[in-house]
Design a protein that fits this description.
heterodimer; A: about 650 residues; alpha+beta; PH-domain like; seven-stranded antiparallel β-sheet; five-stranded mixed β-sheet; about 10% strand; globular; B: about 500 residues; alpha/beta; 3 domains; three-stranded antiparallel β-sheet; 10 strands; about 45% helix
Chain lengths: ~650, ~500
């Protein structure tokens, strides 16, 4: 099964070079697996080949040959392999395995979650775009579905089903498509039922310095007419003005306000994919610094420009959402090809406008609509197959971060939590599910993706309990209507997202998760509700018949066993860091309290905590829980922790 | 604080709020402005608001008597008998900035203390700051030793701090200055403990900035936070240039180190800087928050502020005089206490379920440290407070806070007593700007407040259900027992 197996490999901890795990490295057809020696738990680290973004062989040292693996989900793995030859073999194999040349080599074609055919088909049906357009109120008097692209004949990167204004005839569409980069003609992305304003998307016009196209002008006219409440439309070019002007020399460019009747043209400067790729690269370098100072970090963050770019995308989304919601004006959005910045901006605007997209299901629909169906080039951007490295860029990562920034600003507005976003990001790169394969709907049909792979959405939906935001209520004011985010840094901070970019360095994150805590409380609440029902019933029965049995009690006890989830991360997260380099030269000695592990193990409010002593005395189980939960702050300071999860961290701080 | 021009008064407050008043009539405007100016820069402490404030609430507990050293010592003596209360400073005769009673090793008599006091800056001899019940290790604090250039020594000083060591064990001295600064201090008669004279101690230097550097940092930070431009780059570079978060990181790191020495290394620790009234207190009080679950309760935190800041002689009146908008340079002004509160907030953010109090509690303390109707933060030390007769003439902040109406505002709904040591991360990725203070007046807080309310509701509903279920269970159990008794009959 294994291509390669190397023993006595050391896995280094990035934060502390003295912390290393010894184990065996396995290479399989799909994963790199590191299994720690010795420990009973056999801690394992699995990395999918498709997650690997770079492999670096470093200079051999006395202890062995270091190998650095950087992953697309921001995990960084440092291995030291004893033998130079083994290291070379692994290096060569990984380079080959991490860069497949055929789709069939990707994990989703071998991944089998043990679902039958019907379940798989159901899974793919979870997100249905026609249903989504119906939800928006389309088709209606102004908009209709067009079949011009039935065989992908007009535009091969567009979906088969495209929604266009009723007055746009096939002649106009085809004419307009000839005047647009890669024939990506204006098509509907979002329609606002309440005021008929819409968001349409396209690529740049092939206007050069003076070219015109009657059909294209008619197309924009048709979009305007589809919104009788307004006498103009905005045309938003999401590129910096300089970039757009440079494109004119190549026969492309932007709309001339003189040629199109009743448009207002607007540049919103979002940089291109190359700038974004470099920006992320710079930011990741900052994340990888070993014990950076605050200045190193802030300066590096600023220098990367990452948050500036995030803000630019948000500002564009905010502009469009405002035009649609407040002015009731339709907007046509484009960039160069209309599949990167346009996708970002349209989806941010939709998210701000429509609470539905802030639900779990709605968010899946949004990605399916603005990214998957409109031909965002997942394969090229995320390097699923070996290709041109210049095509790679964190376009959807930026969109996902925009959502996170909004979640920080509107904590009650989203049905899903941070984990949901992180897992979607992970699977965009993992190729474990077929959703994000290829560069267009056409290619996916040809590969018969739906028949040969599984859908991520069904997988996430099945586990939706893990992704819920406990603060979300569908009847809360934050979940209604349009969101109005603050734009200036002094009103709202765009923050560095350590949960994503330092995702695997658990030590950097808050040690207790409010989300998990509240979810545990909510779950308990639900159980209490059920129990209350049972108790009421029993009480009524008892009063009636004076009969009793022990059934209820045993049920209660079963429940109480399930309760008390831990709110903290694993104990590893709660050991001191290296606060001083001076400590290591101090003579080593065993600490007097060396066997205690200060894991922040916390029992949630157990429902037995406040129960009266008479009751808990009835059962051993209950009193056991009682003991744990009464570790009060005043008296419990010196109680030994009962958790035995002692790990090897101790050694680090005492080692010479 | 204020700038008057053309019928407009801009009042810049110590809590960082900026209020603009448009007043018709130039003359009235000038009158109002000069009145505000005069009233906000009173020379005499006894003319300040706390001396005129009459409480509108019923006093249940006199806050001036809530945290007495005797109670603290009682707690200590229940776990160890190695320490004693010394009344050596009864009339503030030995050390002007110490309280009348201090806790010192039992084996050191008052005569020796007097000698040690002569050897320490401002007479601040080493006293007990914290006793770690888990392993009996202690944290002491003092000021710098007066070794001078010729390496003076003091046998009693050595004896005093050695008295805290277990046989064969060594301790750590955490000096909150860089080695360079500590060496320079010798020229002015100060200095640090020489290895030759303190062979059982290992000295670690952790540089924490002081005075005007901190004040300038605060001024720059507040300026950055009030910048209304929409430019992200400018914001980050201004935040970086203010160095505020750098100070936070330095202070937290030193505190974590002290806690680590005590809990993980099983060693006793002595902390000092120069005077031992600023960075020393930041380190000792934060280390206690990390180590001692009691300090993470409301009552315990209040007690910590009283012990480690008020009684320990942090000069509040000098440090918290004008806040960030002061236009005249105040020599002694420095946001030392605000930095401490910010560090607590950083830990609170990382352990949101381990503190009984919430962010509002910390913000309240920040406000009252700078301006208050209560006398608690007036004066620079206990000596001055007793001369001003504050307990007789003013109200204590604690009398007001510790009533259930007020307490409910400061309670953290997520709190679950956590008896363990909590180790915060000091990596830059883990530290954030304290928006609750610095963006408080710029940022619409509606959505965050709603989230907080939602949290409270979720937990409240859960508790109500628990109560109901328990009541029903009890009822059931009673009925069952009755039944059984009837059966037995």
């Amino acid at each position: 099964i294994f291509f390669l197996q190397v023993e006595n490999v050391r896995l280094l901890d990035r934060l502390s070079s003295r912390k290393a795990a010894l184990g065996t490295l396995y290479l399989t057809a799909t994963h790199v697996i590191f299994v720690e020696n010795g420990s009973e738990t056999r801690k394992e680290t699995w990395v999918l080949h498709s997650q690997i973004s770079s492999i670096e062989k470093q200079a051999t040292t006395a202890t062995g040959c270091p190998l650095l693996i950087r992953c697309k989900n921001f995990q960084v793995i440092q291995l030291v392999i004893p033998q130079e030859r083994d290291c070379h073999d692994i290096y060569i194999s990984l380079i080959r395995l991490a860069r497949p040349v055929k789709y069939e080599e990707l994990y989703c074609f071998s991944f089998n979650p043990k679902l039958d055919k019907e379940e798989r088909e159901q899974g793919w049906k979870l997100v249905d775009l026609n249903e989504e357009y119906n939800r928006m109120g389309i088709p209606n008097n102004y908009w209709q579905i067009s079949d011009v692209n039935r065989d992908y004949g007009v535009c091969d990167s567009y979906p088969r089903e495209v929604y266009v204004p009723k007055s746009a005839t096939a002649h106009i569409i085809v004419g307009s498509s000839k005047f647009r980069s890669r024939r990506r003609f204006p098509a509907l992305s979002y329609y606002c039922k309440d005021n008929n304003a819409s968001i349409c998307r396209s690529s740049q016009p092939l206007s050069g310095f003076s070219a015109r196209c009657l059909e294209d002008e008619q197309m924009l006219q048709a979009i305007r007419k589809a919104n009788p409440g307004s006498d103009f439309i905005y045309v938003v070019d999401t590129r910096p003005k300089l970039n757009a002007m440079a494109n004119r020399a190549a026969g492309k460019g932007y709309e001339n306000e003189d040629n199109y009747s009743n448009i207002k043209f607007q540049f919103i400067g979002i940089e291109n994919i190359h700038v974004m790729r470099n920006s992320l690269q710079k930011m990741l370098e900052v994340c990888e610094l070993k014990s950076p100072s605050m200045s190193d970090f802030l300066w590096g963050l600023e220098n990367s420009g990452w948050l500036k770019h995030i803000k630019a995308i948000m500002d564009a989304g905010i502009f469009i959402a405002k035009a649609v919601a407040e002015e009731g004006v339709s907007v046509l959005v484009h960039c160069s090809d209309g599949w990167d910045r346009t996708a970002q901006v349209c989806s941010v605007a939709s998210l701000l406008l429509d609470p539905y997209y802030r639900t779990m299901k709605g968010f899946m629909v949004l990605i399916e609509k603005d990214w998957v169906s409109f031909g965002h080039k997942f394969n090229h951007r995320y390097g699923n197959l070996d290709g041109d490295p210049k095509e790679i860029s964190p376009v959807i990562d930026q969109f996902i971060e925009c959502v996170w920034q909004l979640m920080e600003q509107f904590p009650c507005a989203f049905e899903f939590n941070e984990r949901f976003l992180i897992h979607i990001q992970h699977h965009i790169y993992s190729c474990q599910f077929g959703n994000f394969l290829c560069n267009s709907q056409k290619e996916r049909r040809e590969l018969k993706i739906q028949e040969r792979t599984y859908s991520l959405w069904a997988h996430l939906w099945k586990n939706r309990a893990d992704y819920l935001n406990p603060l979300y209520r569908s009847d809360h004011s934050q979940t209604q209507g349009t969101l109005h985010p603050q734009m200036a840094p002094c009103n709202f901070l765009y923050k560095f997202w350590s949960g994503m970019y330092n995702r695997f360095e658990k030590g950097l994150h808050p040690r207790q998760s409010i989300t998990d805590y509240l979810m545990a409380v909510k779950e308990e609440t639900q159980q209490l509700e059920e129990e209350l029902e049972v108790l009421r019933e029993r009480l009524a029965n008892l009063q009636k018949s004076q009969l009793y049995d022990n059934e209820v009690k045993s049920k209660q006890q079963d429940r109480s066993k399930q309760l008390g989830p831990s709110t903290s991360n694993n104990s590893l997260a709660n050991t001191p860091q290296e606060y001083s380099s001076d400590l290591k030269s101090f003579p080593s000695r065993s600490p007097s309290q060396g066997d205690e592990e200060d894991s922040a193990l916390i029992l949630t409010q157990d429902n037995l905590k406040s129960s009266d002593p008479d009751l808990s005395a009835n059962s051993d189980q209950e009193s056991g829980v009682e003991d744990l939960s009464c570790r009060s702050p005043s008296g419990g300071g010196c109680l030994p922790s009962e958790d035995s999860g002692k790990d090897s961290d101790e050694a680090v701080f005492l080692a010479v | 604080r204020f700038v008057g021009s053309l019928g407009t008064i801009i009042i810049k407050c110590k809590d960082l709020r900026i209020i603009q008043l448009d007043i018709p009539g130039m003359e009235e405007c000038l009158n109002i402005a000069s009145s505000i100016e005069a009233l906000s820069t009173l020379d005499s402490v006894t003319l300040m608001y706390p001396f005129f404030y009459r409480p509108m609430f019923e006093i249940i507990e006199d806050g001036w008597r809530s945290f007495l050293p005797d109670q603290e010592f009682e707690l200590l003596s229940s776990v160890t008998d190695e320490w004693r209360l010394s009344c050596i400073n009864k009339e503030f005769s030995v050390c002007a900035s110490y309280p009348p009673v201090v806790i010192v090793p039992k084996s050191i008599d008052d005569e020796a203390l007097r000698k040690v006091a002569m050897f320490r800056h401002g007479s601040r001899f080493p006293v007990l700051s914290y006793y770690h019940k888990k392993n009996g290790m202690v944290m002491m604090r003092s000021s710098q030793p007066l070794t001078g250039t010729n390496g003076r020594r003091c046998k009693e000083d050595e004896k005093l701090i050695n008295a805290t060591l277990r046989p064969g064990k060594r301790g750590y001295i955490i000096d909150t200055r860089s080695l360079n600064v500590a060496q320079q201090a010798r020229a002015k008669g100060g200095g640090f403990e020489q290895e030759a004279h303190y062979p059982q101690w290992r000295r670690i230097h952790k540089c924490i900035e002081r005075f005007n550097i901190l004040q300038e940092s605060l001024i720059k930070l507040v300026e950055a936070c009030n910048d209304q431009s929409h430019n992200m780059d400018r914001w980050l570079s201004k935040l970086e240039a203010s160095n505020w978060l750098t100070h936070i990181k330095e202070i937290l790191t030193a505190a974590c180190l002290a806690a680590q020495c005590i809990d993980r290394e099983g060693a006793s620790v002595l902390v000092h800087g120069t005077e031992g009234t600023d960075s020393t207190l930041q380190v000792t009080s934060l280390a206690q928050i990390i180590l001692d679950p009691r300090c993470r309760t409301i009552r315990g935190f209040e007690s910590l502020v009283v012990r480690e800041w008020l009684q320990a002689g942090h000069p509040f009146q000098q440090r918290c005089a004008q806040s960030a908008y002061s236009n005249s340079k105040q020599k002694w002004e420095a946001p030392v206490f605000l930095l401490f509160l910010d560090c607590v907030w950083q830990i609170l953010r990382q352990f949101p379920c381990s503190f009984e109090f919430n962010e509002q509690f910390l913000i309240m303390l920040f406000e009252h440290a700078y301006a208050s109707q209560f006398g608690t933060f007036l004066g620079n030390n206990e000596n001055e407070r007793s001369k001003l007769k504050l307990p007789q003439k003013t109200m204590s902040l604690w009398s007001w806070v510790n009533r259930s109406e007020e307490l409910s505002k400061f309670q953290n709904p997520l709190y679950e007593a956590n008896s363990l040591v909590i180790w915060p991360s000091v990596a830059p990725q883990s530290l954030q700007l304290w928006e609750g203070v610095f963006l408080r007046w710029n940022r619409p807080s509606k959505f965050l407040d709603e989230a907080h309310e939602e949290m409270i509701n979720i937990i409240k509903y859960n508790k109500e259900l628990q109560a109901k279920v328990n009541a029903l269970r009890r009822q059931l159990a009673e009925m069952e027992t009755d039944d059984r008794m009837q059966e037995n009959l």
